[in-house]
Amino acid sequence: MKVITQTLDSIGTAVVLVLRTLRYLPSLPRQRQRLGEQLLFMGNATLPLVLILSFCIGAVLALQVGFSFQNLGVNRYIGSVVGLALVRELGPVMTAIMVVGRIGSAITAELASMKIYREVDALQTMNIPPERFLVLPRITAIALIMPILTMGSFVAGWAGGAVVCEVVPFIDLDYRIYFRTLTEFVTTDALMDGLIKAEVFGLSVVIIASSIGLNTRGGPREIGQSVTRSVVASIIFVLFINYFITKALL
Amino acid sequence: MPLSQTVKKEPVAVEVKDLRKSYGDHEVLHGVSLSVAPGEIFVIMGASGTGKSVLLKHIIGLEKPDSGEVLIGGRSAFESSTHRDIVTAIVFQDGALFNSMSVYDNLALYPREHRIYDSKTIHEKVMDTLRILSLENAAQKMPSELSGGMKKRVAVARALMTEPQLLLYDEPTSELDPIMSATISELIATVSRQTGLTSIVVSHDRELSLSIGHRVGLMHEGNMTFIGAPDELKASKDPLVTEFLNPKINLENPRFRKTENGK
After folding, report:
1. B196 and B247 within one domain
2. Which of B163, B180, B203 is the last residue of a domain?
3. Fewer CB in a 10 Å sphere around the end CB: N or C, chain B?
4. Which chain A residues are Cβ-neighbours of B200 within 8 angstroms?
5. Is residue B92 part of a domain?
6. Which band of pLDDT confidence, cut at 50, 70 and 90, is reported for residue A82?
């Protein structure tokens, strides 16, 4: 019962944070410097990892599919399977997991530290709302950067699959055929579905991370606990909501 | 730039009426009342854990009480509009400087965010304020590169940049050596004298309280047990006052043993 109450309380706190932050949306142009800093941080922190991870996942996926298809004579459809799997599921989810690890954890650690060391109090006493100064640039930055990260993930994953199809002897599929079937099946709608999913995941991660960070109480030990809580809550939320978004988009 | 130019508006009076606050079962403030006149330096003294900082948080509007009132210039301190219309600032115990910003940006943040001046004027005001506090060479330093005394002075400088009508100080001389404590005390008195702003200083620094405070309040276990001029405080025969001002070190019967035995 206590866990349910705490979960509902956390969700309520996060919703209130979002609503308060949205109130300051008109002041976004004034936050452009901080928005730029956040975009740079999020891109730098996550893009290389997303590309490497997606390349490896695309490669492994092509290997697995190629192995299963080798006696069925349908090797040319590897591209469609890899392409769709990456666009509809693996790309958005893996990007979100990377965002949790690299961006969400950093946001919680920074905001929790600011809260513990009273920088948030200092902002409030200066009549600078933390939602406007701290949360709005982060939420906007993730909304802008998530489609770029996700598209990067798609392309790197497809490339990983193509390399495997070319170099693994038992698959032996020309990359042009791989990409032809891939483009046949990966429609604009499928791409949009993947990008919408990723956008929801990214926003959720930053909102959860900010909410947990700004509600940290105690000392340095609690900063660590908040980061752990933020990472766990974000991953569970992403995987949980993934089912419902998938169902809604099918 | 003289300090008097850092405050543009009139100083305000502060009135605290029967303020009560509990955290769980523990009542921290047991109905505290006090009034501070415009332009006055009011020092709140008391042992650690007596509720001094909690009282300060109520005045600045960071905490809401269970009951009672805090009026700043006749308006409730718990309404955010009061702190928008009456400029109040606080110097936190540890400075609470923004660690990701340079000293310069810490000072420039308030006028930038509130668009009070253009960037040229902000630059001039920041550099002038840093110069007054002998911090001009620290402008581009990060807070982590500053000593304890410098952090406190930067915190005061940042508060002055808000051009406050009421300035609160939370333990401004804690963790400082005697010379730096004296420097900070002189700074508080000078700021008050030259700007005329109202100052409330929470401290258990006897020298600071008796030398710069116009009036001193002594808190004990969530109550204001004494309010008066520094001379009245020194002359007081109240055992709580004399014990606080001149604690005798008794190695035969140490206080912590009394606490352990519940006596």
Report:
1. yes
2. B163
3. C
4. none
5. no
6. very high
Q: Are residues B238 and B169 in the same domain?
A: yes
The Cα–Cα gap between A89 and A186 comes to 12
Cβ-Cβ contacts under 8 Å, B88 against chain A: 125
Closest CA to A175 of A166, A185, A187, A164: A166
How far is the C-alpha of B19 from the C-alpha of B32, rounded, in Å? 5
Q: What is the largest CA-CA distance in chain B?
A: 65
Alpha carbons A31 and A133: distance in angstroms, whole number = 7
Same domain, B131 and B10: no
Tokens at residue A39, please? 């975009």
Please indicate, yes or no, whether residues B177 and B83 belong to a single structural domain of this protein: yes
Which tokens is B131 given? 């110069």
- Per-residue pLDDT of chain B (263 residues), as tens digits, is 555 555 456 889 999 999 999 998 888 999 999 999 999 999 999 888 888 989 999 999 999 999 999 999 999 999 988 988 999 999 998 889 999 999 999 999 999 999 889 999 999 999 999 988 888 899 999 999 998 888 988 999 999 999 999 999 998 888 788 888 888 888 889 888 888 899 999 988 888 888 899 999 999 888 898 899 999 988 888 888 887 887 777 777 777 776 555 54
Residue B73 CB partners (closer than 8 Å, separation 6+): B12, B13, B82, B86, B165
Residue B191 and residue B69 in one domain: yes
CB within 8 Å of A81: residues ≥ 6 apart = A61, A65
Contact residues for B126 (Cβ-Cβ < 8 A; gap 6+):
B104, B107, B108, B139, B161
CA torsion through residues B89, B95, B100, B105, sign: positive
User: How many helices and strands, by DSSP H and E, does chain A display?
Assistant: 11, 0
Residues B139 and B225 in one domain: no
Please judge whether A125 and B99 are an interchain contact, meaning their C-beta atoms are less than 8 angstroms apart. Answer: no
Q: Is residue B93 part of a domain?
A: no
Q: Which domain holds residue B234?
A: 3-87+164-261
Q: How many domains does chain B have?
A: 2
Number of A to B CB contacts under 8 A, please give it.
44
Nearest to B96 among A119, A128, A133 (CB): A119
Domain identity same for B33 and B78 = yes
- Chain A residues bordering chain B (beta-carbon distance below 8 Å): 110, 113-114, 117-119, 121-122, 124-128, 133
Q: Which of B31, B58, B34, B61 is nearest to B45 (CA)?
A: B34
Interface test with B, best of A119, A121, A134 (most B CBs within 10 A): A119
CA nearest neighbour of B162 among A121, A122, A129? A122
User: Alpha carbon A87 to chain centroid distance?
Assistant: 14
